[in-house]
Amino acid sequence: xxxxxxxxxxxxxxxxxxxxxxxxxxxxxxxxxxxxxxxxxxxxxxxxxxxxxxxxxxxxxxxxxxxxxxxxxxxxxxxxxxxxxxxxxxxxxxxxxxxxxxxxxxxxxxxxxxxxxxxxxxxxxxxxxxxxxxxxxxxxxxxxxxxxxxxxxxxxxxxxxxxxxxxxxxxxxxxxxxxxxxxxxxxxxxxxxxxxxxxxxxxxxxxxxxxxxxxxxxxxxxxxxxxxxxxxxxxxxxxxxxxxxxxxxxxxxxxxxxxxxxxxxxxxxxxxxxxxxxxxxxxxxxxxxxxxxxxxxxxxxxxxxxxxxxxxxxxxxxxxxxxxxxxxxxxxxxxxxxxxxxxxxxxxxxxxxxxxxxxxxxxxxxxxxxxxxxxxxxxxxxxxxxxxxxxxxxxxxxxxxxxxxxxxxxxxxxxxxxxxxxxxxxxxxxxxxxxxxxxxxxxxxxxxxxxxxxxxxxxxxxxxxxxxxxxxxxxxxxxxxxxxxxxxxxxxxxxxxxxxxxxxxxxxxxxxxxxxxxxxxxxxxxxxxxxxxxxxxxxxxxxxxxxxxxxxxxxxxxxxxxxxxxxxxxxxxxxxxxxxxxxxxxxxxxxxxxxxxxxxxxxxxxxxxxxxxxxxxxxxxxxxxxxxxxxxxxxxxxxxxxxxxxxxxxxxxxxxxxxxxxxxxxxxxxxxxxxxxxxxxxxxxxxxxxxxxxxxxxxxxxxxxxxxxxxxxxxxxxxxxxxxxxxxxxxxxx
Length: 734
Hints:
About 30% of the residues lie in helices and about 20% in strands. By secondary structure, it is an alpha+beta fold. Among the domains are: about 105-200, no CATH class; about 235-250 and about 275-320 and about 510-575 and about 595-675, Immunoglobulin-like (Sandwich); about 330-510, von Willebrand factor, type A domain (Rossmann fold), CATH 3.40.50. Helix 9 runs antiparallel to helix 10, helix 9 (about 350-360) packs parallel to helix 14 and helix 12 runs parallel beside helix 13 (about 475-485).
């Protein structure tokens, strides 16, 4: 047979061969091998001396000789830059989630995986070629973020295909515990080369949960300072039957929380003071009709919305509202921070517009002085009649920010002006507006507090308005306001300025009662446990209630104050504390009639010009209670919704409600909302639900068995073995 015929025969045989079915695993192996080969060649794709290893010049021929003559300079410069960038490169290399080139694929055994519905999505154990990324337990934040195994199985292969269309990338063991705690990325290779990344590792799929927006909440980025406190614990009535605290009319925490949520981050827990969130809203409590008794308490008892075995005791008061015809003279000193830290749009510019609103409310009987402080304190405006608005507004408009902060010096000068022009029977108040950054002046905060206390006893009170973020000294502002018989507000917007300085101007400026204290004695025959919701920074000792030398909060004209207790009725089964083994019945209530009372409420207060307190007493009878939450008033349900919101936002150890339930409760209790504050709160609930989602329980991650990497050994070619020659028979030897 000729060579030509032999070639034709071989070509015909080759044409008769069946084309092999494409294999995704073999394809990936080939790609990996090609990338490894390419990477290896790149290391040697240089020209010139091995010491310099420059690449081919791309300069024009006229410059080529010059380039060749300076190869050593380039090489040394490149080496120096490489040494400088080496730590950065190593950091990027070790922290990236991209698989380094050259990591060989490994084979794992994919066990059947439960789907969202609990069924098995992979019919049988299969061997998959995967790439090793990193290990670690991935946190699954939402069921929607996980591709169900059923979806994977449905899309894994078309009819007649031998290979699935997805290659799973699974975690491989690593030794770094810190890296193992970080979320990892899982990549699904889809047809057409599309890539989908998901923040989850291989683990059993969760059962479907109610879909809520789930995303990581940013931590507090502000650097603002807040007073640290521990959440009020549950107390046993038989051990501690009496609870005592000072009332709080501040609202700074609410407006700060609102700003944080609207800007897309969650405030730190100490910034969420629940009582200030609740007291931001006004409630329809009956007001006193006589200034001699500036308020009367309103008490209600209703089921707790987050625990059907406990109840809420709500205590509310509303300050006396003077008649419109009563024009009380005001002596106001604006103490304005004009330091360099105030040079931001939400600080000094907003401050000037806010005080412009207050100036517009003043009349002929009012006087205004302005003291500004920065590197040094100075009088910007001598006492001026409130009717001369042009002069006052012009002085405000001429303020500019710059210099350090001499807060203490400014306070001293402001009090001097207030005392020199003090009005008898009127309002004498210093209004401090600052971002709270006191860094020059009296070094000891306690000395500053003592100074303000002394001025308070002389009849000049202090209110504080906070502005901006980044270095907000909320803790300092709160301390100064509490010691100055005033309130602290946070102005995050022009709308809030209008609320504080116009709508609530009476409560901000005109004090109708000072040193207001609340004390509740719970009945151990009816109540086994209780906890006060909020007021952690206002707690008082039991003996402080009758001590008129102990300072407490103040109530302004028309201001409402609300306090909430969660109580556990005896025998409800909701007790968090076990009964004592050797407990006796000595603590039983002696009076059988007292069994009809949850407890006994006492309030103490002083009139603005008095140093002697007066007492109000109200028994909290069972007739104050309603059987269902629906039977409670709209104000009661609204206060409970706001308290639940605050507890969930700060991560309280007690009373966790889903955001949807909080919203439903608040929606049904909005009532009349002429100013739109309650409608705005509904939006904050929605924002908080996005930034601090409900916690979803995650089952433990099961280990993935990783099989050892098999060595790829090519099959040896079949070589024909020649037959052995026959062995000749032995020839007998004679």
